[in-house]
Amino acid sequence: MSLEALKREAAAQAVALVRPGMRLGLGTGSTAKHFVDLLAERVRDGLDVVGVPTSEATRAQAERLGVRLTTLDETPELDLTVDGADEIDGALRLIKGGGGAHLREKIVASASRRMVVIADETKLVETLGRFPLPIEVVSFGLGATRRAVEAALAEAGCAGTLTVRERDGAAFRTDSGNLILDAALGRIPDPERLAEGLDRVTGVVEHGLFIGLATAAILATSQGVKVLGEP
Ligand SMILES: O=C[C@H](O)[C@H](O)[C@H](O)COP(=O)(O)O
Questions:
Q1: Which residues bind substrate (predicted)?
Q2: 84 labelled as ligand-binding?
């Protein structure tokens, strides 16, 4: 099975969790895109749900496919968020933000009773950190914020380099207009400690460590679907 087929399989399993009337968080990325596609098929068949998109890309996709949307201002509590991840460990801790959407994704997941992660098997790791950790920062004071982030990394026992994310030769801007520092760390020995340290840095808007948010992960493998937690 191709990676794309595995992602679609995980998405299909998550769509089966959706019940009429649910208020959904709609994730971002190539795996979440399959979920929105498959959800839209059920909506066309008469399923009544409403969704909060976690990015402008997901908003555009959902609108195009006719999935009814709302905001967290109108609907501050959600039943279920389904989203992808860049890495998942056995304790359901995640790295997210490969597409730069982790700020809105974290807000939406935090407003949701359940967060189910969908992914292909390559995303499951023993130790988080092989995927560079995205850290969203405001552009004002970048040099000083960067130094404070470096200190937080060192305090949490992490070593590595920070790179300002670029796209098409220019600094990448998130949907909220901020920059991303990608921290190539190799391994994160204590994700909780690192998350707490980064939370304390003024200038950091949000980092891609999701801890205590995912309630389950649906991982599609070539041997079938593996579920972590309670979907
Ligand atoms: O910012 C992007 C999101 O956190 C994505 O959910 C994450 O990068 C996984 O994306 P994909 O399903 O494309 O691997």
A1: 28-31, 83-86, 96-99, 123
A2: yes
Topology at the third CATH level for domain 3-124+211-222: Rossmann fold (3.40.50)
Rounded CA gap, 87 and 6, in Å?
16
Per-domain residue ranges for the chain? Answer: 3-124+211-222, 133-204
Q: Is 105 annotated in the active site?
A: yes
Which residues are CB-contacts of 42 (< 8 A; sequence separation ≥ 6)? 15, 18
What is the distance between the alpha carbons of residues 47 and 11, in angstroms, rounded to a whole number?
Answer: 17
User: Would strands 224-229 and 161-164 be described as parallel, antiparallel, or unpaired?
Assistant: unpaired
pLDDT digits (tens, 9 = 90+) for 133-179: 999 999 999 999 999 999 999 999 999 999 999 999 999 999 999 99
Tell me the pLDDT tens digit for each residue of 62-100.
999 999 999 999 999 999 999 999 999 999 999 999 999
Atom of ligand 1 nearest to the CA of 97: 1
Angle at 197 between CA 196 and CA 200, to 5 degrees: 90
Task: Name the residue at shortest CA distance from atom 9 of ligand 1.
Answer: 85
Atom 8, ligand 1: residue with shortest CA distance = 98
- Superfamily name with CATH number, domain 133-204: ACT domain (3.30.70.260)
- The alpha carbon of 27 and the centre of ligand 1 are apart by a number of angstroms equal to 8
| pTM tops 0.90, yes or no | yes
